[in-house]
Amino acid sequence: QVQVVENGGGTVQAGGSLRLSCAASGGTYSNYNMGWFRQAPGKEREFVAGVRWNDGRTNYADSVKGRFTVSSDNGKNTVRLQMSGLKPEDTAIYYCAAGLDYSGWNDYEDGAYDYWGQGTQVTVSS
After folding, report:
1. Predicted confidence (pLDDT) per residue in 1-39, tens digit
2. Please, which of 36, 57, 70, 77 could form a disulfide with 24 given CB 3.0 to 4.6 Å?
3. Closest-CA residue to 88 (of 1, 32, 15, 35)
4. How far, in Å, CA of 74 to CA of 72, rounded?
5. Coil, strand or helix: which one is 112?
6. Is 8 exposed, middle or buried (0-12, 13-18, 19+ CB in 10 A)?
7. Can you spell out the DSSP letters for 26-92?
8. What three-state secondary structure class fits 100?
9. What is the pLDDT of residues 78-90, one digit of tens each?
């Protein structure tokens, strides 16, 4: 059984930075694409950033481009999300997810991911 565990999060003032980390363990495979999603109160879960296992290619939601950076330890199923220039609208529960790669993979689709973490709260005060 694969377990996905996030660390980090907390409360920060607008303009500040936070770093989230995540590890997927317990699986047989190492070819997991990793992604970050978030869900704010009263809103649907949305894609934030993703990284491909084979070439490290990254993808970002338009709302976080230039402010967030996702990175991974190739072959170790770990991923980090460095968040800078945080805004109050970034306040949400952030979820890490892992999914076995397949042809036609789309980072944005939460249904593509097989395993999810419990989520970690990020609060940005104005």
Report:
1. 889 999 999 999 999 999 999 998 887 777 889 999 999
2. 77
3. 15
4. 6
5. helix
6. middle
7. S-S---EEEEEEEE-TTS--EEEEEE-TTT--EEE-TTTTTTEEEEEETTTTEEEEEE-S--GGG-E
8. strand
9. 899 999 999 999 9
